[in-house]
Amino acid sequence: MNRKKIVLSGLRPTGRVHLGNYWGAIKNWVDLQETYDCRYFIADIHALTTSYSDTSAIRTATLDGVKDLVAAGIDTEKSVLFLQSRVPQHAELALFLGMITPLGWLERVPTYKEQIDQLKEKDLFTYGFLGYPVLQTADIVMYMANFVPVGKDQESHLEIAREIVRRFNGMYGEVFPEPQPLFTPSPKVPGLDGRKMSKSYDNTIALSASAEEVRSGVMSMVTDTNRVRRSDPGNPQVCNLFPFHQLYSSAEEVAVVDSECRTAARGCVDCKKHLIRNMNAALEPIRERRAALDADPKRVVEILEEGSARARALASETMAKVTDAMKLL
Ligand code: TRP
Ligand code: SF4
Fold this sequence. Notes:
This protein has helices at residues 19-32, 44-51, 58-72, 89-99, 103-108, 110-118, 127-130, 132-142, 155-172, 211-219, 242-248, 251-262, 268-294, 297-325, and strands at 6-11, 37-42, 80-83, 147-149, 180-182. The longest helix has 29 residues, at 297-325. Helix 10 (211-219) runs antiparallel to helix 13 (268-294). It folds into two domains: 6-189 and 297-325, Rossmann fold (3-Layer(aba) Sandwich); 209-290, Tyrosyl-Transfer RNA Synthetase (Orthogonal Bundle), CATH 1.10.240. 37% of the residues are buried. It is elongated, with a radius of gyration of 22 Å. Strands 1-2-3 form a three-stranded parallel beta sheet. A two-stranded parallel sheet has the order 4-5. The two termini are 33 Å apart. By secondary structure, the protein is mainly α. The site of iron/sulfur cluster has 13 residues, from helix 12 and helix 13. Iron/sulfur cluster is lined by residues 223-224, 227, 234, 236, 239, 241-242, 257, 261, 266, 268, 271.
């Protein structure tokens, strides 16, 4: 039998998934289910590395994460969807891997210093935060993952994971495959204000936004600012709306938008209404699935519990190999 390769990825629980998260990562996760055996999880222990002093948002954000992943199309029959903290082997393996991880490797991860500088209001001089990549390595190798879909921001974490794997395999024998990065499409998704869509800029559209939220969000978008009058020709390349047409309108429609904009045959308000129609049509099924889960909180917890039980079974097989290779009893 030709076993499928294994893909693993985790979502930090930071609240509702927005269209930037969706196009940058989650849509790829959904599509990868066709080709790979996928394990996806909510990285709530990772959330603790930066939010340990105020954990009040984690539970809701975790539930939001699961609901959005399922609404987006993560199929819990095909993929294992679980909660990191409900699979205690992650903590156990992270501790073991920590024994063989040189401090210098961790201090040299670029995101380590960057985050400390960026999140000045938080004290990140903790053992847990320094160990972020060790925990992430445990997440990955726990399921013998072959591929990790990554964005640019996670490349250095995957690199250190590969180094830890090589060191482990070198010391104790070949236990883990070296995880490879899977570079997936990540089309540009600007925020409402034209900067990158990000929660910290408060410029997002939620994946499960209501039709009205989509409408008011698109209406508030900045278009080609050089286009002062309706009769001025526009340039889609500098318009914030155009990337959304490329994601939500057909190729034929995009060509029409492009030419009608450049010849001033369409005005920006009509162009926005056109986009709103297409976005709402595409988002409606996701919105419905999300609403069904909102109405059934028990089901959401059940999804996580079932997935976590499956993950624990896989994890205990790995831990048996690990303790054996390390010659623990
Ligand atoms: N660090 C990842 C992020 O910030 C989340 C994450 C945790 C992860 N463990 C992982 C991603 C394992 C891939 C594989 O998005
Ligand atoms: Fe942007 Fe459409 Fe206006 Fe052109 S017509 S500037 S693409 S909103």
